[in-house]
C-alpha cells in the first residue's frame, strides 16, 4: 500500500516538475532562443557552434566525473532535491549582467559560463532523476509520464513562445532588456520546477559498500556492450544520430542567411519549434505507451531524416517557391525531434537491469562525449562553406539511422 502511494505521489510530482522544466527551458532553448541570442551578440556561426559544443560537454562531463558515485547514494531523491535547488535558478544571475555589462562579447561569454554550469549540474540531476524514475515508476507508465510532461509543458511553452515572439518583434525595447525579461522568466519557472521535486521520495535500494576505484570502474564498463546487444545497438544509433542533429541549432539562422527570412518570420519559426515540442511530447509518449520505446527511436530518426531532406530541398527551390510555410513545418518537426531523446532514455531503462542502470548511463555518456565538439566544427565549416554541405550530410545520417532503427529489437519493460 505504501509503495502504491509512493508511485502515485512520485508520478504526480515528477510530471509537474518535468512540465515546469520544459516550460522554463523554452525561454532558454538551445535550438531556438540561444541561436538568435548568439547571432545578436556575436554574429558568428563559429561561436554558435562553440556554444552548442561546450553545452554538450557540460551536459556530459559531470556525469563522467561524479556519476560512478551516485550508485553509493542511499537516498537519491535527497541528492536530486539539492542539485535542482542549486542550478535551476541560475538564469536569474543574467539579470544584473544585462543591466550592467555593455560589451556584447562579455555578455555572451558570461552567458556561456552560466549556461554550461546550468547544464553541467543538470546532468547530475538527470542521472539521479532517471534512477528514481526507473525505480519508483512502473515500466508501463514511464512513457505516459514523459508524454504528460511534454504535453503540459508544451502547452505552457506556447505561452513562452508567444512572449518570446512579442519581445523579439518589439522594435522599442533594447536587446539587453528583451533578453533580461526572457531569461528572468525562464529562471523563475525553473525555480518552481525545483520546488516541485522536493516532496519526491525514493524507495529503499541496495548500495555498494566497497570504495569506488575509479579507473577500475571505468575499465569494467565496456563489458556491458558485450553482455547486452540491445543496449549496444541503441548506443550505435544514438551516436550516429548526433551527427544528424547538427543541423537543428542552425535551422533558424539558415532561414535567415540562405532563405532570406526577416526577423518577424524568424520569431515565428521559434513559436513553431515550441509547438513542435508540445506535439512531440504527445506523440512520443503515446508511441512509447502503445508500441514501446523502440518505435519511438524509429519515429524520431525518421523525423530527423524528413527535417534534413526538406531543408535541403528548400535551399534548392527557394529562388522559385515561397519556402516560409514549408520551414514552419520543418521547425515544428525540429521541436518534436528535440524531445526524442526520451525514447533513448526509456529504451535504456527497458533493456538494462536496475542494478546496472547507472553504470550503463555513464557508459552511454562516455560513448557520446567524443562527439561533443561536432557542433563546433559544424559551425566552423558553415562559416567557410555555407549551410548546404551540412544539410546534405544530415540527410545521409538520417538515412543511416532510420535503417539501423528498423533493425533495432523491441524490448520488454524492466522494473
TrEMBL record:
Coiled coil: none annotated. InterPro entries: MFS_trans_sf, Sugar_transport-like. The keyword Kinase does not apply. Keywords: Membrane, Transmembrane, Transmembrane helix. It comes from the Bacteria. The chain crosses the membrane at residues 44-61, 82-100, 106-130, 151-168, 180-198, 236-254, 266-284, 296-318, 324-349, 361-381, 387-406. Signal peptide: none annotated. This is Major Facilitator Superfamily protein. It comes from Clostridium polyendosporum.
